[in-house]
UniProtKB/TrEMBL annotation:
Gene: thrC
Main EC class the enzyme belongs to: lyase
Protein name in UniProt: Threonine synthase
Classification via PANTHER family: L-THREONINE DEHYDRATASE CATABOLIC TDCB, THREONINE DEHYDRATASE, MITOCHONDRIAL-RELATED
Domain Tryptophan synthase beta chain-like PALP intervals: 76-378
Cofactors named for this entry: pyridoxal 5'-phosphate
Length: 428
């Protein structure tokens, strides 16, 4: 595979982690000889695969992701193949013509990180690595730990002690990864790899791993295929390290270049206010990112002050009329309640999409007659701590530590909890 530096254009070895100049790497695909109609047919046929690697919602698109990898080298857990839903309660609450939610939360380890990690681990193992590493706000480490276990390899992950959901740390440990905690934020983990990465002899699977980006492109391929190759007007995505919006942009440009779609949708990138250096840069029209020294948001998956992929994200959004927006933790949690009660559910970072869409509709950046797809990046069970505040009164009755008065079960108490037949309205 051809790997090139995004900054200086230098060609790199496909095991490289970053360029000598400090720039990010990217995979340069060669789509010569690929025909749109033929691809559509091939992708459709593969929807009926059950056992081969093509049953995966990532490897179904192998020609556009990692065409050179021998099929026998693929490490897959049938990731992708996630639901694209259009819940009416969410649509009504937002007051938009149509809204889809792409539930990446349905991935095997519970987040979209699986879409990229299957490709990074497959590639690393193919190139001879048996030991893998990353730093993470939680989901990347869970995903890496899962694939490393599945490939019978080892993994060691660096997890900041601050603001990482305990569910994700436990999930990572359960898959057998070694966890190294450290004081500070995700950004310090990234700096560690910049300094010592090449000495470690481990395959580094951080968000800047170019093969992860290739795998994450499949999210938008799947949305396009589900909608018969006609995308909605907007795609709304949360941003922390900005790898996912980078992959979304690259995937969209692939689809357009190949003639698989005829019209580019616009992209809205949403950050949490307490960790929004990229939104600040874009809204001020600046060309350089100024990091947030102490990022802070309940949406721990995007609690990142110095997003590594900001240049790629900036360039894509600038080329195609993308917008950015930031939302408060309160707005995120309100949107999460709505998504949870629609029956889909997600972790806080994912809910930033619906919160952001609401804001962009209110300020008329997005028209109510337009259509949108929001990418729900992680599963509801990924962060149960975040729910404790929302449901504190319910929890206080259930978990009283043996104090207070006894509570007997009666039909009155059970039915009384439901309220009148039509009073329940989750979207008010
Ligand atoms: C990683 C992650 C994000 C942020 O994605 P980036 O690629 O870091 O911008 C958002 N939500 C969830 C659930 C995540 O795990
Ligand atoms: Zn370079």
């Amino acid at each position: 595979m051809l790997i090139r530096c995004y900054d200086c254009g230098e060609t790199q070895d496909d095991r490289a982690y970053s360029c000598m100049c400090g720039g990010l790497l990217e995979v340069v695909q060669d789509f010569k000889g690929l025909d749109a109609e033929e691809l559509k047919m091939r992708f459709r046929h593969r929807l009926s695969e059950r056992m081969s690697p093509y049953a995966s919602g990532v490897w179904r698109y192998k020609e556009l992701i990692h065409p050179e990898l021998p099929d026998g080298e693929i490490v897959t857990k049938r990731e992708g193949n996630t639901g694209l839903y259009a819940p009416e309660v969410v649509r009504r609450s937002l007051g938009i013509r149509k809204v889809w939610l792409k539930a990446q939360s349905e991935n095997p380890s519970g987040s979209f990180k699986d879409n990229g990690m299957t490709v990074a681990v497959s590639h690393g193992r193919y190139r001879g690595y048996r030991r893998f590493t990353c730093t993470s706000t939680g989901n990347t480490s869970s995903s890496l730990a899962m694939y490393a276990a599945w490939a019978e390899c080892e993994s060691v992950v660096l997890v900041p002690n601050e603001r990482v959901s305990i569910n994700k740390v436990l999930q990572t440990l359960a898959y057998g990864a070694k966890v190294v905690g450290f004081d500070g934020t995700y950004d310090e983990g990234i700096r560690f790899y910049e300094r010592y990465g090449s000495e470690l002899g481990l395959y580094i699977c951080n968000s800047i791993n170019p093969f992860r980006i290739e795998g994450q492109k499949s999210i938008v391929y799947e949305i396009a295929q589900s909608l018969d190759w006609e995308l909605p007007d907007w795609i709304v995505i949360p941003g922390g390290a900005l790898s996912n919006v980078t992959a979304l942009g690259k995937g969209l440009e692939d689809l357009f270049q190949l003639g698989l779609i005829e019209r580019m949708p616009r992209v809205a990138l949403i950050q949490a206010e307490g960790a929004s250096p990229f939104h600040r840069m874009m809204s001020l029209g600046e060309q350089q990112l100024t990091a947030f020294e102490s990022p802070s948001t309940i949406a721990s998956a995007m609690n990142i002050g110095n997003p590594p992929s900001w240049k790629k994200a900036r360039d894509f959004l600038t080329r195609h009329g993308g917008v950015t927006c930031s939302v408060t933790d309160e707005e995120i949690m309100a949107a999460k309640t709505l998504i949870d009660r629609s029956g889909i559910g997600c972790e806080p970072a994912s809910a930033a999409t619906v919160a952001g869409l609401r804001k962009l509709l209110a300020d008329k950046t997005i028209d109510r007659e337009e259509t949108a797809a929001c990418i729900l990046t992680g599963n509801l069970l990924k962060d149960t701590e975040a729910l404790k505040h929302t449901y504190r009164s319910e929890l206080s009755e259930w978990d009283r530590g043996g104090l207070a008065m006894p509570m007997k079960l009666t039909p009155e108490r059970v039915l009384g909890r439901l309220g009148s037949a039509d009073a329940f309205n989750p979207i008010s």
